[in-house]
Specification:
Structural class: alpha/beta
Bound molecules: S-adenosyl-L-homocysteine, iron/sulfur cluster
Number of strands: 15
Strand order of the largest sheet: 14-13-12-11-10-9-6-5-4-3-15
Order of helices and strands: EHHHEEEEEEEHEHEHEHHEHEHEEH
Helix content: 25-40%
Length: about 375
């Protein structure tokens, strides 16, 4: 397996305009850095050759010393519902996952912020990986650029939603997440509409204020997943360090922009956190916040010791919360290919598309549902 970066060549994706200017040096006029920045992010140039705004000698020189730094697609899994999960090889041959989810009126890309995740949520497959390393700003941006290219998407169209809900805890990689967000949201950069980029956190409380102080930042979703301090400690042991009560206080203090609300995600686990009493406690906890609630019925997986509640229970829970707070049930996407929330753990299944094939191919073979899957390398006991 080979990663994406040729040895010795420094990737350009991830550098901001000032960094590109210092890379080009004082011999180049200042506008060259801007041209290069726009070519990389706004125009999403396919090669150095294609950056025709730059003089040929400069393009040639850049190509000798640098590369763009897009990951390579190692595997691709196609769901019956149109979702595609990508296993992407980074420059150091580590891999990370990103997911494309088409919908009628918009498309969503789910990208990762870390290789693995250090937060040990008991219902999440990614947790079994542990943390390998943080992604660089470039590796975060490159996931968007690559999937946009694969699916011929226009990030500037307002029809594209990007959520950092793949592998990793974004607030534990805040500097890189913030830098990536600035370039993703910059109209001269990738140009995502500001309401179309969201990060999701397990609640690293001290980092909420840091994120809130950023002038350019994504929207914020918080994975609540429990209705009481004790319950959350069991399901999300990080609550022992960052208490639920303090997290809710930090949410109350979070500086929402006039158009913005917080989103709380709540994974429903059968017989654990899905009772009417849980729903009532959620209303009490969040009642004073400008927010909405997204319910996710557990996506199962090897090593997850919980069950998915029946649809009727999910509906009843939603009904109680929705009386006071806008509350929606999130439709699972790509369940058959382990692409749904909390399932990103390099699970191999048998419908991987060889990546040597034409990238936009949608043959019948691509579309067949998954058969068996390999169990997780190590399991975990129920809490
Ligand atoms: N680490 C961040 C973002 C990635 S997880 C976070 O926890 O918020 C993205 C979402 O998937 C979170 O809301 C998480 O609670 C949810 N999730 C994790 N495991 C899940 C599972 N097995 N089924 C459904 N949702 C899950
Ligand atoms: Fe990490 Fe999020 Fe999974 Fe928790 S739910 S282990 S924070 S990826």
């Amino acid at each position: 397996m080979t990663g994406c970066y040729t040895e010795g060549r420094m990737p350009l994706i991830g550098l901001d305009a000032a960094e590109l200017a210092s890379l080009l040096g004082p011999s180049q006029p200042a506008y060259r850095a801007k041209q290069l920045y726009q070519a990389l992010y706004r125009d999403r140039a396919a090669s150095f050759e294609a950056i025709t705004t730059l003089p040929l000698p400069l393009r040639t020189e850049l190509a000798v010393q640098h590369e763009f730094g897009l990951p390579t697609i190692e595997k691709r899994y196609d769901s019956v519902d149109g979702t595609r999960r990508y296993l992407l090889a980074l420059g150091d041959d580590r891999t990370v996952e990103a997911v494309f989810m088409p919908e009628e009126d918009r498309d969503t890309l789910c990208i990762s912020s870390q290789v693995g995740c250090p937060v040990n949520c008991q219902f999440c497959l990614t947790a079994l990986l542990g943390l390998d390393r943080n992604l660089t700003a470039g590796e975060i941006i490159a996931q968007v650029l690559l999937l946009a290219r694969e699916h011929r998407l226009d990030p500037r169209s307002r029809q594209l939603n990007v959520v950092m809900m793949g592998q990793g805890e974004p607030l534990l990689n805040l500097p890189n997440v913030v830098k990536a967000s600035r370039i993703l949201l910059d109209p001269n950069g990738v140009g995502l509409f500001e309401r179309r980029l969201t990060i999701s956190t397990s609640g690293i409380t001290p980092k909420l204020a840091e994120l809130g102080a950023e002038a350019v930042r994504p929207k914020l979703a918080i994975s609540l997943n429990a209705s009481s301090e004790t319950q959350r400690r069991e399901l999300m042991p990080i609550t022992k360090k960052y208490h639920l009560r303090v997290l809710i206080d930090a949410c109350r203090a979070y500086p929402l922009r006039p158009w913005e609300h917080l989103t709380f995600e709540y994974v429903l686990l059968k017989g654990v956190n899905d009772t009417d009493a849980d729903a009532q406690r959620v209303v009490k906890l969040l009642g004073q916040l400008r927010c909405k609630v997204n319910l996710i019925a557990l996506n199962p997986g090897p090593g997850i010791a919980f069950e998915t509640p029946d649809p009727a229970r999910v509906a009843a829970f939603r009904e109680i919360v929705h009386r006071k707070i806008p509350c929606f049930v999130r439709k699972p996407r790509g369940l058959d290919i382990y692409a749904a929330c909390g399932q990103l753990k390099l699970v191999s299944i048998d419908n991987a598309t060889p990546t040597t094939q034409e990238p936009h191919g949608t043959s019948d073979a691509d579309r067949r549902p998954a058969g068996h899957h390999q169990p997780a390398a190590h399991g975990r006991t129920a809490v």
